[in-house]
């Protein structure tokens, strides 16, 4: 094989690589969204009462927002609504709670401010990722079922994980922010979906 032919083949492979990566991202996105669709709720009307609610963590602060991170605020708002409507009696706030980055204490405080009693809230301080939060719900807290609270795009991935761990979960969608303002989050989510599928396949 001549050097010219080798170079042509290499260039062809390099050009095909982005297409292959894009196809993988799209495929993972479709699989996760499709699997989660029947278990997502935008209202409380048809939610079964008595389940434990798990609120997935995020930072309470976000650059460019004077009133804090809207993803955080809307998740807290949604969880408080579930409690006040007596759909859930217990709430687990799950997130990263290292020394300098304590999501769960902020989540707990925000829920209390919205009228949820401290006794109804439990902090899962080891939920450093969505995968860990869901895995611990099943293996540490011994839950057979739960309601997961986050934005729709995040709930979809969480429900995919819950299905893997045979946790009977549904997602209650907190209010979202538009794609224009949250485009970085949506882009990271597409990559996170590929990662979570790879993580699950490796287990």
Task: Write structural notes for this entry.
With 203 residues, the protein is α/β, with parallel strands linked by helices. The chain has one domain (33-202): Rossmann fold. Helices cover 51% and strands 16% of the residues. It contains 6 helices and 8 strands. The chain has helices at residues 3-36, 70-84, 103-113, 130-139, 152-164, 183-202; strands at 40-41, 52-56, 91-94, 97-98, 101-102, 121-124, 145-151, 168-174. A 6-stranded parallel sheet has the order 1-8-7-2-3-6, sandwiched between helices. Helix 1 (3-36) crosses helix 5 (152-164), helix 4 (130-139) crosses helix 5 and helix 5 (152-164) packs parallel to helix 6 (183-202). The longest helix is centred in the first third of the chain and has 34 residues, at 3-36. The relative contact order is 0.16. The mean pLDDT is 88.
Percent helix: 40-55%
The count of strands amounts to 8
SSE class? alpha/beta
Number of domains: 1
Which CATH first-tier class would you pick? Alpha Beta
Low-confidence stretches: none
The main pleated sheet reads as: 6 strands, parallel
Strand order in the sheet with the most strands? 1-8-7-2-3-6
The fourth-level CATH homologous superfamily is HUPs
Portion in beta strands: 15-25%
How far apart the termini lie comes to: 42 Å
Rg over alpha carbons: 20 Å
CATH hierarchy: architecture: 3-Layer(aba) Sandwich
């Amino acid at each position: 094989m001549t050097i010219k032919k080798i170079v042509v083949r290499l260039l062809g492979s390099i050009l095909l690589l982005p297409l292959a990566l894009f196809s993988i991202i799209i495929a993972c996105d479709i699989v996760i969204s499709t699997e989660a669709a029947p278990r997502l709720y935008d209202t409380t009307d048809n939610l079964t009462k008595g389940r434990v609610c798990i609120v997935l963590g995020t930072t309470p602060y976000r650059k460019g927002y004077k009133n804090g991170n809207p993803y955080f605020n809307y998740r807290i708002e949604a969880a408080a609504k579930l409690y006040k409507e007596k759909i859930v009696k217990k709430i687990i706030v799950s997130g990263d709670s290292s020394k300098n980055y304590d999501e769960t204490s902020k989540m707990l405080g925000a829920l209390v401010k919205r009228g949820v009693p401290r006794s109804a809230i439990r902090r899962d301080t080891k939920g450093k990722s969505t995968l860990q939060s869901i895995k611990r719900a099943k293996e540490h807290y011994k839950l057979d079922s739960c309601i997961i609270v986050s934005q729709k795009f995040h709930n979809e991935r969480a429900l995919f994980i819950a299905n893997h761990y045979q946790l009977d979960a549904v997602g209650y969608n907190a209010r979202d922010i538009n794609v224009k303002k949250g485009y970085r989050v949506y882009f990271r989510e597409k990559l996170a979906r590929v990662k979570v599928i790879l993580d699950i396949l490796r287990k």
